[in-house]
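Quarterly update from the structural biology core.
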Amino acid sequence: MWAATCCCGACTSIAGGISKRSARLAYCGLFALSLILAWILREVAAPLLKKIPWINNFTNTPSTEWFQTDAVLRVSLGTFLFFAIFSLIMIGIKTQNDVRDGWHHGGWIVKMICWFVLVVLMFFLPNLVISVYATLSIFGSGFFLLIQVIMLLDFTHTWNDAWVAKDEQFWYIALLVVSLVCYIATFAFSGLLFYWFNPSGNDCSLNIFFIVMALILAFAFAVIALHPKVNGSLLPASIISIYCAYVCYTGLSSEPRDYKCNGLHKHTKAVSTSTLIIGLLTTVLSVVYSAVRAGSSTTFLSPPSSPRRGTSQGSKKPLLPSKDEEEGQKEEKKDEAQPVAYSYTFFHLIFALASMYSAMLLTGWTSSTADSEKLIDVGWPSVWVRICTAWVTAGLYIWSLIAPLILPDREFA
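Predicted structure, tokenized:
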């Protein structure tokens, strides 16, 4: 009996230690589980939802696609509420002595049950609530895309600084090679965009404008980054360039299949499905990166201000403290509150917004197509959201380069 008790105590201690270190990745696993559940229900839940009277309360039964969209939105709403509630609960945590720090890192069985209950409860809500959430998700997705851009900028600058810090010729050459490869890929990909989305015999001035803007921005990134007065580098400029070209492609490929300038209309199903998969993959990578990056000592996901450790400058202590004083200092350090490593509130907020964005990806930004129930992520709302994301990305990157020149008195991390 005593041995069993010791074994259980040891297992609990080990589990607690693991949860302390891997809580961030555990939240990523929960988010991934919500995506899998939403995807499955989108494919199989439509016949069941048609039998629920408070969901199928229409005179004429909607299309199967409508029920697929409804299932995804209800799972997304449950996941959003889970992370949003945690984000609100974690406001103001500064030290690890706060009881809410334990809520953030532990209690995973309870958390899983709460998440599951929230998702189930969403299927008892009226359609009006889900419709309002779908509208709000469009704006929430825009905020997530903005955060995703900030993550990308943080990643590119971190990568560049890490290689420059090695201060060896090999790494400088590697930076140059990677930058050139990215720029070559950007211009080659732009050529394909002209071929796919500017069919001969059609007036596709809007598509040409989008593609040319992507090329102009790529050129501007390099010019500004290499300017003598700007503390920039070619690697971030090249990565942001290829990202903007890719976002431009996803926007153009989301144009309606009957639009004459969409040269991929014959392969719309395959293109939209691949766009969905890539979009979900980048979403998962974004939240994983935010989780891993949260433990670093950078300003990204920086924690709220915590009390400074140490004594005041006015206090004077002998150079060689006595034994009693040393023991007192050790006890004081044990009792001293350790500051949290990152902002729990912002951490959960990222997952909440990511839940909205993933719902928009899985439902085609709630746009419906009359000719195909399997067509996803297609429509003008998706086009403009993606194109505007590319422009916002460009604006943020250019601002990160010229801000130190415009505001020389401010310190930029």
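The chain is about 70% helix and 0% strand.
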